[in-house]
Design brief:
Length: 756
């Protein structure tokens, strides 16, 4: 209120000063105008009287003189005329003049002395009068003085009127200033501030979770920084509250939220200063030549997204295939380097493969054999003996790379990743029976019939069962695995414990749904400095109201052509969205040495072209395909700006794009359309779940997502974020490592550790 008062006082003062200055100027101008007007009229009158009076003075005709004087003296605002002789004696004057102006008239003397007209304003009583004297000349000689007396009080009256009018104007203006200031202040400052304050109070007291005040009007841009700062603070508060609530909830259940710090502490306790070993085909950082420079790339894919934060927290050794053409020159003599570049947190040891090995093991057996074998996408697996031989050899190569690293360590903990290294667990155990090994299978596990077509089905199972733990994303894949073992291997299966025992060695089969780092959900990473929807679309030359986003490795399991068919169908069913909805596909080319993948790329480009050719306009495109390797930093703004994110995999172990999208939406907005054939759909039940083979259903899902009410959108997003926040990748790693550590402690006879 004080500010408003100060504002009003300042404005009124400014108005007052302007009014005074303006009035002063106006009065001065008017005074000059009225006076010179009076002087001009007086001169004219004097000249006409002079001609008649001068001869009478000379001839001393006092009676005639008296008559003429009376006749001229009878005018408006005219007080009178007097005629004096050259000695200053009054010869004639209008009646009553002497009473009105008693005493001598100075003009008469001055005219006689100077011999020229003389005039001036005088105050007599409460009247202002203008007295002007003129020499009466006959021939060459001055014969007397003519004096005219005008009542000039009307000038004062007029000037007073001006002051009064201006005072009135000033009062009206001041009143207007006060009223307008109060309205403007209320409308654009105190109103919004009160709204922001109310919303922050509701946020503080837990009455709302809205990321912004509900109906904040568009106010002066000057308030924007305050509002955006308040929004950020509120967001941080909301995040802190959610974190505290979650921590309290978990504490009540005897657990606490898994964070990178907690994982770090946990690892310290479990490993007692020893390293964690992680082995995968894909490396988390690869170096590529870029002209004379070397570029560091983080490969696309869920494995790296999930495991890099875990390794950063644990500081262990990650062994992986060095696939970059500048990988050798960036590693040391032991093929090792510290990563991530710039903020080293763990070690990466690279394994070198020949071109033939890479072809046979990676492209061949892993991705033309096991990949289609495990994914139900009706793509026929290809099994070749030479590929299998390379697969075995490369698994041995990885084992050789690991052995010296764990040589001096008792009960080392090793996490093997994915279908490229199915034989590695048994190889490790052969040489180091004390090692505690887990293999995590990042893709689905098929049913026994489907799996049974693999010529080396038993060898693969035996290799995996060398582990102490085999992890899958979901229980369904664990069930399939146990049934597969039951079908193809001699073993003892415990369906209660979900374990397989062969040759005295037991392996636990458990679901560990992988996830993303949830640090950004907890407010550790809060960034508002990202381009918005309009800016992103402008960057690709498109104007649209609604934005859909897809982020994929270009793979036939991802259902990308199906997605584009659904988008085309959506426009057919809802032409009102033509020109208003654009779908941006951020697709990273992958495994392009395999023909199936090259064909898929062509199919996708043709599908995009078909839809665009049919519907595009000069300024708008239905689908924009950004074919490139996109960094996480580049993808994040698209997640944050999207009205809808589409994950339409035909079959997917988990799919971390779905979880990344949810994690990125700190505004609790946006809709996820998610295939029912992803592992993620078991957890993210608030997504719009679709069957990617059902084009009609997917088209309807896009329509539903775009038109969804904001309250429903944020409710769904909030629940999904709560899920991811709790079931994050630190929990995933923590649980798996805890299981391994428990087995190690049991075996070494040091007791058992309670599950976390
Ligand atoms: O989804 C299975 C998977 O192996 C992931 O674990 C991995 O991130 C992704 O495929 C990428 O595959 P690639 O390493 O062949 O590029």
């Amino acid at each position: 209120m004080k500010i408003t008062l100060r504002l009003i006082v300042s404005l009124v003062l400014v108005v007052a000063l302007s009014a005074i200055a303006f009035s002063f100027y106006q009065v001065r101008e008017e005074k000059t105008r009225l006076r010179s007007d009076l002087e001009r009229r007086t001169i004219t009158l004097a000249e006409s009287i002079q001609e008649s009076v001068a001869p009478l003075v000379e001839s001393d005709s006092s009676e005639k003189l008296g008559r003429i004087v009376q006749r001229f003296g009878n005018r408006e605002r005219f007080m009178g005329i007097a005629v004096h002789d050259t000695r200053g004696q009054l010869l004639a004057s209008t009646a009553d003049l002497e009473r009105q102006i008693p005493g001598a008239v100075p003009q008469v003397v001055r005219v006689l002395e100077e011999g020229r007209p003389e005039g001036g304003f005088f105050r007599v009583g409460d009247q202002r009068i203008y007295i002007s004297g003129y020499p009466l000349v006959s021939g060459e000689e001055t014969v007397g003085v003519l004096t005219l007396f005008h009542n000039a009080s009307y000038i004062d009256v007029r000037l007073k009127e001006i002051w009064e009018h201006n005072l009135l104007r000033f009062l009206v203006l001041s009143l207007l200033v006060v009223v307008i200031t109060l309205v403007v202040v209320r409308w654009s400052i105190t109103g919004p501030i009160a709204q922001v304050a109310g919303w922050m109070r509701d946020l503080r007291t837990g009455k709302t979770r809205e990321a912004k005040p509900a109906v904040l009007p568009k106010v002066d841009a000057a308030l924007d920084p305050l509002i955006s700062e308040a929004t950020r603070m509120a967001k941080t508060l909301a995040v802190a509250r959610a974190k505290a609530e979650k921590a309290a909830r978990l504490a009540a259940r005897g657990e606490s939220l898994w964070t990178s710090d907690r994982l770090k502490d946990h690892m310290r306790a479990v490993l007692g200063g020893k390293k964690l070993y992680l082995v995968s085909n894909r490396e988390p950082y690869l170096h590529e030549k870029d002209g004379p420079n070397v570029r560091c790339i983080v490969p696309a894919g869920g494995l790296v997204t999930a495991l890099d934060p875990v390794m950063r927290a644990c500081d262990g050794l990650w062994i992986a295939h060095g696939s970059g053409d500048a990988d050798r020159e960036t590693a040391d003599g032991n093929d090792t380097l510290r990563v991530p570049p710039g903020e080293p947190a763990y070690s990466l040891k690279r394994v070198w493969l020949t071109r033939e090995e890479e072809d046979g093991y990676y492209y061949g057996f892993s991705n033309e054999g096991l990949w289609p074998l495990c994914h139900i996408t009706h793509t026929r697996p290809v099994f070749r003996l030479e590929d299998w031989n390379h697969y075995r050899k490369v698994n041995e190569k990885f084992a050789e790379a690991l052995y010296p690293e764990i040589a001096g360590e008792e009960y080392p903990l090793v996490l093997v990743q994915d279908y490229h290294l199915a034989l590695l667990p048994a190889l490790i155990k052969e040489k180091r029976p004390d090692a505690k090994v887990a293999i995590f299978w990042h893709i689905p596990w098929p049913n026994p019939e489907a799996y049974g077509i693999c010529p080396w089905r038993q060898e693969i199972l035996q290799g995996m069962l060398g582990s102490d733990i085999i992890g899958f994303h979901i229980q369904f894949h664990c069930n399939n695995f146990l049934e597969t073992v039951d079908r193809f291997l001699e073993s003892k299966i415990d369906w209660e414990q979900f374990s397989v025992t062969r040759g005295g060695h037991a392996t636990l089969i458990k679901p560990f749904p992988i996830s993303v780092s949830s640090e950004e959900l907890h407010g550790e990473i809060v960034s508002d400095d990202h381009p918005g929807k309009e800016e992103l679309l402008r960057g690709i030359g498109v104007k649209a109201e609604f934005l859909g986003v897809g982020v994929d490795r270009i793979d036939y399991t991802k259902g990308i052509p199906e997605r584009f068919r659904a988008i085309e169908r959506f426009f057919e069913k809802h032409p009102e969205y033509l020109g208003r909805f654009t779908f941006v596909e951020l697709g990273a080319p992958s495994r392009i040495h395999i023909k199936k993948y090259r064909d898929l790329m062509t199919e996708i480009e043709e599908a995009v072209d078909k839809v665009n050719w049919r519907f595009r306009t000069k300024t708008w495109m239905p689908i924009v395909f950004l074919k490139a390797h996109h960094t996480h930093e580049a993808i994040r703004p698209w997640y944050q700006a999207a009205d809808v994110c589409m994950v339409t995999s035909l079959h997917d172990g988990m799919n971390l794009v779905a979880k990344e999208f949810v994690a990125a939406r700190d505004d609790e907005d946006g809709v996820l359309v998610l295939s029912q054939f992803t592992g993620a759909s078991r957890e993210l039940k608030d997504a719009v779940i679709v069957n990617p083979y059902d084009i009609e259903e997917m088209a309807d899902a896009i329509f539903l997502a775009i038109g969804m009410e904001p309250a429903e959108r944020s409710g769904r997003m909030r629940r999904m974020r709560a899920n991811i926040s709790e079931y994050n990748v630190f929990r995933w790693a923590g649980r798996m490592i805890t299981e391994l550590a428990r087995l190690r402690l049991a075996e070494s006879g040091a007791g058992s550790e309670s599950a976390t």
